[in-house]
Amino acid sequence: MPQRSLFSRLGHEGCLTAVRAMLAASLALAIALTPHLFLRGLVGSLGMYAVTDGVFAALSRPRNAELSARFEGALSLVLGSAIMLGSDSQQSLLTLFCVRNVLAASGDLLLAWRTGGRGWIKPRAPAACLAYAALGLGALAVLLLFARAGNEGALDLDAYLAGQLALWAALMGAHALRITLRPASGGEAYVIGPRRTWG
Questions:
Q1: Cβ neighbours of residue 60 under 8 Å, at least 6 residues apart?
Q2: Contact 34, 27 (CB under 8 A)
Q3: Which of 23, 26, 28, 196 could disulfide-pair with 166, CB 3.0 to 4.6 Å?
Q4: Which long-range contacts (CB under 8 A, 24 or more apart) does 83-89 make?
């Protein structure tokens, strides 16, 4: 039996989802471990992360979700570029990054819902970890938006951003592992179409 490459064993979607998880984990570690970090110094990093994650998200989508994948990729490209070029203040940087995260989480949540049927949020659903990652990222981004609007000094922003990205990375890594270990017939991790119920 011929040796299969790591890419073949993990599958297209599993590999790209794992890359998204590693990208978020790397940025979370960089933020957490860099001493005397100023938020303004993160403009390039957060912008490039938004662009790169959006591209990998678009590429990792199943074939029958290409339209939404292109839209998500284009949106991340626009918002990531806006973060890098148009963030003239800490408030605008955080607002753009949080809006981008809410939109990215919405796309992932929609994909999880379309693939899982009535039981899309249950732990055994095929995209449950993706749903949990999207819910966590979206909720934390919205909380940050409200906290920043209400009290300028309420949060340790470095720790908050690092925690947000670390949670996202952990759940996306779990999703990559799940779709790698539990492929559906035909080579796709899961199929978008008539929604199914997973018990």
A1: 12, 13, 16, 17, 20
A2: no
A3: 28
A4: 83/43, 83/46, 83/47, 83/50, 84/43, 84/44, 84/47, 84/48, 85/47, 87/43, 87/47
Domains of the chain: 6-181 (1.25.40)
Q: Express each pLDDT in 82-114 by its tens digit.
A: 888 876 777 788 888 888 889 888 888 888 888
Q: What pTM was computed for the model?
A: 0.76
Q: pLDDT per residue over 7-24, tens digit each?
A: 444 577 788 889 999 999
CB 164 within 8 A of CB 25: no
Could you give the CA distance from residue 87 to residue 143 in angstroms, rounded to a whole number? 20
